[in-house]
Amino acid sequence: MADSDIKLQEEELVEQEFQSLLNDYRQSIHRQKTEIITKAFHFAKQAHKGVRRRSGEPYIMHPLAVARIVIREIGLGSTSICAALLHDVVEDTDYTVEDIENLFGPKVASIVDGLTKISGGVFGAQASEQAENFRKLLLTMSEDIRVILIKIADRLHNMRTLEFQPVDKQYKIAGETQYIYAPLAHRLGLFNIKTELENLSFKYEHPETYAEIEKKLMLSRDEQMAAFEEFAEPIRQKLTDMGYEFTISARIKTVYSIWRKMQAKNIPFEDVYDLLAARIIFEPNPDMSEKDQCWMIYSALTRIYKPHPERIRDWISTPKANGYEALHVTVMGQNGQWVEVQIRTQRMHEIAEKGLAAHWKYKTGVADETELDKWLRQIKDMLEHPEPSAIDFLDTFKLNLFASEIFVFTPTGEIKTMPQGATALDFAFMLHTELGLKCIGAKVNHKLEPLTYALKGGDQVEILTSQNQVPQDEWLSYVTTAKAKSTLKNYFRSEDRKYIRKGEDIYASILKRLNLMEQQEAVLHRTMRYYNIQQPRQLMLQIGRELIKADELEKVVQPKQKSRWRRFIPFISSEDPHDNDTQETIQQENGQPAKQKKTQLILTEENLGNAYHIAPCCHPIPGDEVLGYREKDGSITIHKRNCKTADFLKSSDGKNIYSAIWETHRQNTFIDTIELRGIDRVGIIIKVLNIISQDFKINIHDLHITAEGGIFNGRIQMYVYDTAELQQLCEAIRKIQEIQSVQRITT
After folding, report:
1. In this structure, are 81 and 223 located in the same domain?
2. Nearest-angstrom CA–CA distance, 239 and 247
3. Quick one: CA torsion of 255, 261, 264, 269, rounded to 10 degrees?
4. In terms of domains, do 714 and 643 share one?
């Protein structure tokens, strides 16, 4: 096909996408400002002219896709659509924010400026840049929430087109998405987007597992939908008789949520029973409150199906912190399986789909403070006392993003929202910083409780204080909320500065006494090496706290006489053992050979333990989906891709992540663990051990069995070659009649 024909086809494709965007906008509730959107489109199209994405399509298709997400899936208006169309113009072209302001006004320019400041992901190249980058995101978000909403739309489209990125880049982007963007979407009430971001992240981090679960899900889909229709029919009849306009739809669990349940409960796919949920969305009668009508439908539903008494969630009386309202009930269906049913009005559904953005777009400036306003105010409070480390700062911010809420009362009956798992000490810091710093305990429901008491929904809490109280280091392990952790860290940093100054004075006096001031830099490095300390401030802190005694320090800093034989001993400089592993490959670039580092590591029996080290946090074995991480000392550690440490490294230090594959030949064995449960019968353990030792010739490292009430639980640690052997072993043990479940224990 001629170049002119390709160009014409692309022009038609771009125009078609733009018309789809306008159609989406015209069908929304917003005022019809198509002229400004058309102007922004043509401006962005001209600015990105000739530029292509990795997929090969014209670059303008990306801003168009982001703008469509902004209108269709988040429900924002013309200002946000224009900002979405222009979001990469300032970063990627010669145009400035001033140019945008002159053409499209201060609001659009302000949002584009905020998006430009946080471009390139949450993390920058250096730690200080990372912290500043993330603070900019929070600052712009607290000023105009549309910045982060468009950024989430941008990330969603990047995740939908992640297949065109190299594998190591996929890990970094997916890890960052899972670590911060999915929780942000959750906190803003964007349930569908949060779910898709999690699912796509999982797809690229664990492609084999994703494909396996997806295949099983597809095979069971027809069966699930048939069960749903049978379940829904009597509900439809009842709601029709009650005179409601409604829809009842099925919601099948995503691959990621199924996998997470499999991991949490150590069960195979076949044992995940709650794959299906039902959602009732109805138009309420204007003459009656929405809350009363939701309970009327609940009553009608529970006359058809028996409810689970402990699985009722009332998010109508007390909505979630992200604005979510609905009534959840789990009932027993015809086939004996539990089915969760969500009951919500059309208004509640819009808030559930489009989150706090739905509240925000209707905001009229009244004094009523929404949950979003409260959260943004918390962000501003955090920015006043930011963490110096980008990672600590991000962790502190992220703490409450995914937390479930409980409701706690003050002594005067005022209701406060706290994250589930929060302690009495968290509650003290939430009320006031000074209360937290001086807290000695609490009266919970008029009963004395310690700082560590985990709050429960409905507790009435009175904080007890003492002027003599000072925070202790272990308090950091008592608290779970962002405010409490950041306040305590700031307090301890302030105390540390005093000890560091004291340590510097002690150290300087020793150097003066030994006449070593002129050599202080060399002496400092020698002292840090001796104590295996990386930072001078850490050394001074230990000296100031008297963890390093002055008389001991004096002996360390004194120069030692070198042996005269030392100069006769040859030293061989060791080369980086990983140079052979990150091999260089040759590719053509403008007709010239160019060197490019190979980023895929090949794991063999020979290099494991030498060039590469198995991570002690997750203990991967051959067959596990893994990645490599280059440590500060240059060594490479191999982690499972679903390891929590690896998740953190993918999001915070993606440039040091390597894709890795196994190429072992069953020469070495690795320790792994299975957990089994079954009916306690005489000889059952002998049957299991015979399969392990005689049938599979596997050596057992550790064995732990308990039995109670006719049921036994066992945990067996053994030496296996790979995951395939372990899977075959589990299948063989499952065939024993008394065995109910057998599963590999993953970390």
Report:
1. no
2. 10
3. -80
4. no
Residues 6+ apart with CB under 8 A from 111: 79, 80, 83, 144, 146, 147, 150
177/639 Cα distance (integer angstroms) = 19
β-pairing verdict for 612-614 and 711-720: unpaired
> What is the helix (H) or strand (E) element at residue 719, kind and residue range?
strand 711-720
- Residue 164 CB partners (closer than 8 Å, separation 6+): 53, 54, 55
**Dihedral angle of Cα 387, 393, 395, 398, to the nearest 10 degrees:** 120
Q: How far apart are CA 283 and CA 149, in angstroms?
A: 28
**Active-site pick, 91, 230, 589, 738:** 91
pLDDT at site 37: 92
The token pair that represents 73 in the structure block = 């899936």
168: annotated active-site residue: no
Active-site position among 10, 17, 24, 92 = 92
- Whether 91 is a known active-site residue: answer yes
624 and 739, same domain (yes or no): no
* pLDDT of 572: 35
Question: Over the stretch 495-538, which tens digit does the pLDDT of each residue have?
Answer: 888 888 999 998 888 888 888 887 888 888 888 888 777 778 88
Measured CA to CA, the distance from residue 391 to residue 177 in angstroms comes to 15
Q: What distances in angstroms separate CA 393 from CA 54, 91, 131, 400, 403, one per listed residue?
A: 33, 25, 7, 13, 17
Helices (H), 415-519: 424-431, 433-437, 482-513
Kindly state the DSSP code that residue 188 receives in the 8-state scheme. Answer: T
- Token readout for 532 is 């295996």
**Residue 483 falls inside a structural domain:** no
The answer to whether position 423 is within a domain reads no
Give the separation between CA 422 and CA 420, rounded to whole angstroms: 6
Does residue 26 sit in the same domain as residue 138? yes
Residue 434: CB partners within 8 Å, gap ≥ 6? Answer: none
Same domain, yes or no: 24 and 167? yes
The one-letter amino acid code at 600 reads Q
- One domain, residues 165 and 35: yes
- Identity (one letter) of the amino acid at 518? E
Helices marked H in 206-328 — which ranges? 207-241, 255-265, 290-304
Q: What is the CATH number of the domain that holds 232?
A: 3.30.460.10
DSSP run (H or E) holding 416: strand 415-419
What is the C-alpha separation between 272 and 288, in angstroms, rounded?
39
Residues 284 and 202 occupy one common structural domain? no
Phi and psi dihedrals of 186, rounded to 5?
-60, -45
Mean per-residue pLDDT of the chain: 81
Give the C-alpha separation, 464 to 450, whole Å. 10
Query: Given phi > 0 = left and psi -120 to 50 = alpha, else beta, which region is 88?
Result: alpha
Cα distance between the two ends of the chain: 53
Yes or no: say if 364 and 203 are a contact pair by the CB < 8 Å rule. Answer: no
> Rounded to an integer, what distance in angstroms lies between the CA atom of residue 434 and that of residue 293?
45
Q: Residue 25: inside a domain, yes or no?
A: yes
How far apart CA 664 and CA 577 sit, in angstroms, is 19
Q: How many domains does the chain have?
A: 5
Give the tens place of pLDDT for each residue, 323-379.
788 999 989 888 788 888 999 999 888 888 776 555 554 444 444 455 556 666 655
Around Cβ 332, how many Cβ atoms within 10 Å?
Answer: 13
174 lies in which domain range?
A: 17-206
Domain-located, residue 405: no
For residue 253, what is the DSSP state? Answer: P
Instruction: Provide the token pair at 134.
Output: 């993330």
Structure letter (DSSP) for residue 454: B
For residue 615 the two structure tokens come to 């991570």
Residues 75, 143: Cα–Cα separation, whole Å: 19
Asked if residue 682 and residue 628 are part of one domain, the reply reads no
Structure tokens at 379: 């962000």
